[in-house]
Amino acid sequence: MKRKSMERKIAKGAGVLAFSLLAMAAVTGCGPQQKTESEIQNDVEQYLKSELAGQGVKENSSLENFEITDRDTDKGAKIDDIQISCDIVSDTSRIEIDSLMAEYSLSGNHWVWSGGYLLSEAERTAIPTVTEDEAAAWFADGGYDQVNFNDRQTDEKAGTDTFSFQMTRAGEYKTEYFLGTVTYRLGGDGQWEANDSDVKITLEKEEWDVLGEWSYSDEETTVRVNLVSFDSASMKMQAEYYYEEKGKYVFQSDGVLDLEIGSRHNNDVFISETIDQIDGTGQYELTTDIALMLGGTADCKNGEGSGVVFEGYLLARQ
Predict the structure, then answer these.
(1) Does residue 118 contact residue 97 with C-beta atoms inside 8 Å?
(2) Contacts of 93-101 spanning 24+ positions with Cβ under 8 A
């Protein structure tokens, strides 16, 4: 008896469940579902590619920054109007679309794409195609030891693309550091171009390798100069010296001298202010300067070359 009663209760429950499912199906099946955002994006992408092809644009493109900004669905009128913003991006250009109408109509139980149109808010800009290597080529003939990419500033709407590079050039005594920039501009033919006037080179700093002991010696003469500091920007240096003509006289600085650099010439020739000194006997006077012949060639008593010159002698670095 208990088993039969249980079977009847289960059968009755199953009937209620079946009725509920049918009722739910009747409610949910009364109208078609809206298109999903991914379905709309796919439809719009295909539509825009077709429109671009009709305008003669054959480049591959993709849809980016897709967003539904407004939507008005009227199932009674069988219309689903959708406002969209997006970008069409290819290798060479970007079309920014602030407002695009996507329109669907209800056909049977399905929403069918029925077209759309671009509004006036569509703006096309060119994407720069110049590479870092192409930009660096502007500095290839400058005698630089290194040309390193530093930064890139692109303004697609203004039609400019500026590359900057850190560059170095090393000599025997000096290393120069430059900032080089080249700005490409979008021409009327859609090409990015630059000319000599778009290239700027600025000397940022120079570092000198001249400090320390310099000397010359033979059977008759001994000369020593110690460069303690050297600043080409402020035109100042510090040095001490010793000069001896054997059997005649000895001149030497009383400690380190603070010297103004009186002039700087081509090929990096620096001449200090004149040094006047009487020797210990009071018989001989030294009137000279310390010359840094750091570029080009100096013609001295003991030959030609570059380096530090004192009393007409070319000193060798120690």
Answers:
(1) yes
(2) 93/59, 93/124, 93/125, 93/126, 93/127, 94/124, 94/125, 94/127, 94/156, 95/122, 95/123, 95/124, 95/125, 96/122, 96/123, 96/124, 96/125, 97/121, 97/122, 98/122, 98/123, 99/69, 100/44
Distance between CA atoms of 314 and 309, rounded to whole angstroms?
5
Does residue 1 register a pLDDT over 80? no
Amino acid at 61: S
The H or E element containing residue 8 is: helix 2-28
> Residue 94: what pLDDT?
86
Beta bridge pairs of residue 165: 149, 180
CB of 144 closer than 8 Å to CB of 169: yes
DSSP β-ladder status, 212-217 and 249-252: unpaired
Paired residues of 168 in beta bridges: 146, 177
Phi, psi of 196 (to 5 degrees): -55, -35
- 163, 149 contact by CB (below 8 A): yes
Q: What six digits make up the tokens of 191?
A: 């090409």
Which residues, in sequence order, are bridge partners of residue 310?
290, 313
Distance CA 115, CA 13 (A): 50
Stretch 18-33: mean pLDDT: 42
Q: How many whole angstroms from its chain centre is CA 12?
A: 77
The token pair at 140 is 């290839």
Q: What is the pTM of this model?
A: 0.69
- Is residue 44 within 8 Å of residue 100, measured between CB atoms? yes
pLDDT at res. 57: 66
The answer to whether 253 touches 240, Cβ cutoff 8 Å, is yes
Q: Which of 26-40, 222-236, 254-268 has the lowest mean pLDDT?
A: 26-40
Q: In this structure, what DSSP letter does residue 282 have?
A: S
